[in-house]
Amino acid sequence: MNSLLILPILIPLVTATLALLFRTSSHMQRLIGVAGMAALLVSVVFLFTDVYRDGIQVLQAGNWEAPFGITLVADMLTMLMLGISAIMGLIIAIYSIYDVDKEREQFGYYPLLHVLIMGVNGSFLTGDIFNLYVWFEVMLIASFILLALGNSKNQLQGALKYVIINLFSSLLFLFGVALLYGMTGTLNLADLAQRLPEVENTGLVTTVAMIFMVSFGIKAAIFPLFFWLPASYHTPPVAISAIFGGLLTKVGVYALIRVFTLLFTQDIGYTHTIMLWVAGFTMVTGVLGAASHYEFRKILSFHIVSQIGYMIMGLAFNTALGIMGAIFYVIHNILAKTNLFLISGIAQRLTGTFELKNMGGLYKHYPFLASLFLISAFALAGFPPLSGFWAKLSLVKAGLSLEMYIITGVAILVGLLTLFSMTKIWMTAFWAAVPEKGVPEHFGKMPLFGAGKLYIMVVPVMIVAGLIILVGLFAQPLLEVCMIAAEQLLNPSLYIEAVLGTK
Amino acid sequence: MLTVVGLIFIVALIAPWIYRVLQDKAGWVLALVPFSSFLYLASFFPEIAAGGSITQSVTWVSMDLFEVNLAFYLDGLSLMFGLIITGIGTFIVLYGSGYLANHAYLPRFFTAVLLFMGSMLGVVLADNLISIFVFWELTSFTSYLLIGFNHEQESSRKAALQALLVTGIGGLALLGGMVLMGFASGAWEVSTLLNEGDIIREHPHYLAILLLVLGGAFTKSAQFPFHFWLPGAMAAPTPVSAYLHSATMVKAGVYLLARFHPVLGFTDTWMMLVGGFGVVTLLISAWLSLSFTDLKQILAYSTVMALGTMMMLIGLGTELAMQGLAVYVLSHAMYKGALFMVAGGIDHEAGTRDVLKLGGLRSLMPISAIAAMIAALSMAGIPPLFGFIAKELVYEAALGANFWAVGFITLAVLANIAIVSASLIVAIRPFYGPKTETPKKAHEAPFLMWIGPLTLAVLSALFGLLPFIVDSKLMVPVASAVWGSELDFYLSLWHGINLPLILSVVTAAAGVGVYFIWDSIRESAPMKVYQMIFARFPVQVYESLVNGMLNLAGFQTRVLQNGLMSNYLITIMVAAIAAVGYTFFTKSGVIFNPDVSEVQIHEWAIAFGIVISLGVMLFFTHSRLTMVVAAGIIGFGLALIYLMHGAADLAMTQVLVETLTVILVVLVLIHIPKMKESRSILYNSRDAIVAIAMGTLMTLLIFAVTAVPFDAFISEFYADASYPLAHGRNIVNVILVDFRALDTMGEVVVVAIAGLAVYALIKMTRAGAEKDVKK
After folding, report:
1. Predicted ipTM?
2. Where are the domains of chain A?
């Protein structure tokens, strides 16, 4: 038992409550918002060292022995996800200080952000399938309100699509949980993992697996279930787009990884082959969607979809290298994608628009910002020696070692198309001359650092860019930890033993 | 060696600050970096000349399934390339600081060019397959930045992208090839692989590996039909063209194939592919160079020709060809670097690069004229210059080819005729003849800009006259490295009167002849057609591929992401039904054995009521109000079912929630305008079919699952433990607040947030609406 496990849920809850209490003071809200995320990060670091040192950590909530109560479980995958979500939470909280307007602050931006993180963390930590549903609901309501907050027509349209499609996913999820419970009489993941193989009709288990694939697939925005994402992610303030683009879909990916390594491994030849196809289509349709758009954030949104495909591909390989690659890809992608969204926000502050055709001159006037963009964009495209390179390399190696040439080839080519749409942003917003009309007066005059306080937005971007480079240059530690996570996942008995004790 | 490469990168990143401190002296200081690297590499001369090699390795990533080392390997081949990169690099830094003096982007130029230098040095020194790829990609990236140097011009941006995509796709192929090669042999270091050629050649993946590696090499080294990006890359400022797109980066593909010759070479496939592509490239591009009047375009196509020659030599795969390759690479780097720099000087001082607008610059730019003349004669292969030795060896190798010898020599001679004329055009047209009016008043280029070309030109003469300076020390180790085992030879200008010499005389004579009728050849219709087919057409193919991809992307996105919520939902539901239904029917088999004997008549009635309401909702109304009422009926029906099965508390909750929902929704509906038009029957039927399918599937699934025996151990535990352990008599309560309290906490948060949301949405509506009005 390790009581630290509750902190990643409790700290955001307490922070959200405190922030609500100080609703009228922007100043206090910001302070609480940032401090809460920092505290969260500290707690995650402590928990991480425990998991790294002693293996999977478990907390039986209310001290009710599993499988009767709800179990919180922290294995290496959980820790990696918690870690990256805490880092991103802190980055976003800082960025929000400048990006999010007073009005949104008054109407609960910070509490919502923290409740969102609470839902995300709960999803990573829980060892109970129904409890996972609850955390998904927490996430969904918080993200829905964050999307809608501001009430512009655009936002409401996007938010509506978001919430309706996601509710359908929840419905399927709940239905799947009910069926699982009906077959096994339990909700605890570890217990399920033990009991599912005992169900005689394995075909029925595979059918339920498909329900989860669709439900989590909607959350993860895979083909052909991703429509809600490009319809909504470009509408709210950038800080919100960024945290959504970085984190939310990855919770769906996390859930897929979890159930398709722990629960549904009885017919891998079938389920994982379907996943492989889905991965291919997700990569291709997403990247083509990005190629056909000319708005900064829409391009990025479609890329989220495309890159989910890589992660699903790694999962579908179902080898240590493949799953390690998938996990590494998740972390790298959260860094790079969030950062690109954040940069789009700075670019919008400077040029007054997200439309590429009305942008220009950023390279000439803001070379530092340009280099931050280059780092993130080329990382996203998998260029060495940045973080994305290792993600790409592990997946390519995993695919080729399995002799799965077509999907690996598709993944490689999609990388080129990713590069294509990143250069599209670069060549218009950064390289092209400053457009003649419609440029705000402060363009070229407003410094990144100094008056105007733009640095509040720039510094978080610098930190993330630094992380991208660090992960790229010194990949060993992260690769190693991802490998530990992958090996734990491929060895479900470790998880089961940690939760239920040795039998 | 890691230190050297790392140092160059670090200096590159701080170059803007160095410039800020030193201003126009910065070029000199920065040039020390490549110069000292040159000296460092040169210090290995004795060891390499003695036939040795050096490996250094730093672990980068080391895991069971995953090992990448920053390993370096210095032998003759990498030493020669390293010296070219750092040596010419030194001059380029100086030249660039003159060429771009007072240019606002000079610091950015330094950064990019040094980054490139480090990457390129990495490519040729790296020993590990993956690290080669890492540096390879970095050269593509830096080349992209440098081609787009004049980024406000659309043509520059396009050329940069074109180069990036063409070399990028090759780079990705290379990655595939490298990984397959590593898997095939289990060795990831070149130095190890060099001894394991047989394993690779006999491996079933050999052809795939070869094709992928060739994909990388041919795109990077601008082989036909990928050659078009290189002339496009001339949009870069001249120092960049001289350095990247002539002396170094474009030779990366040549280097790669030379490096892997002992591993992948010696097979028929290799010889025919590499030799074939090389010889086609060399012929096509040599004559293309005569169809342009822009100095840089002429030089660019002659560079493509040289790259083709090098490929041909690698493909020939004979000892003579290896000697030829060594000499040709070195001589080309020197004369072409010099010529590009002179061309840049002319452009810089006279304001144009069009040879038709230039003339008589000899007296105004005497040093440039001398450098140009020596370098051009070397390019033309005229004795006693180094280029002559190179060309003789090329001819000898082509004559001695094991296959297609007549073809190789014929095409080589034909191509070299064009190159002789091109050399004369470059060396004579701008400098001799009557003086012309140029956009700028021409004068000699500054010292920074002529020292490089002059030194390289002088070296071309020196190595030609005294070939023993380089032959045993450098050329022999290079050729041996490419050959895979020790070779022994020496170079000399005079081999007696033999067939290559006669062919050289013929080439030179014909070349001079072509030079004199160049104006009419250039303007002739066949030449225009030739240029159209081989220079413009590949670009058009590239562009139509890009546009085709964009059209496909646009089409696909309009179809998928069409903005219609109903389509999205239907697609998702159909996908769900297909995935789950297909699996269910094929894997599990339908288990449908409902026992209806105990179903009472009133229960049937309730079920019937629910179904009718559904039907009303789906088909028979367009009124929102009716729909809400129908939904309410369904809810109440469910509550009745709960009640009949003993779940009184659940039924109560259901009734409350349902009532409240209907009232609230009706209240909201008052404010919403009526549905505009009724939807067509087609749409309604589609929705109905999907809905019915979904419902049926779910029902069948529930039947199937209830057929599995249920283990109620958890409910039993709750029943047993509720009072003694949790001290609560109401089991449901205890579950909610104790056994599964965490769920409840989550749901409480959901409700709280929903409350907050309602407040925010209502209060903020006015604010939002006001904002919209303002816009």
Report:
1. 0.92
2. 3-500
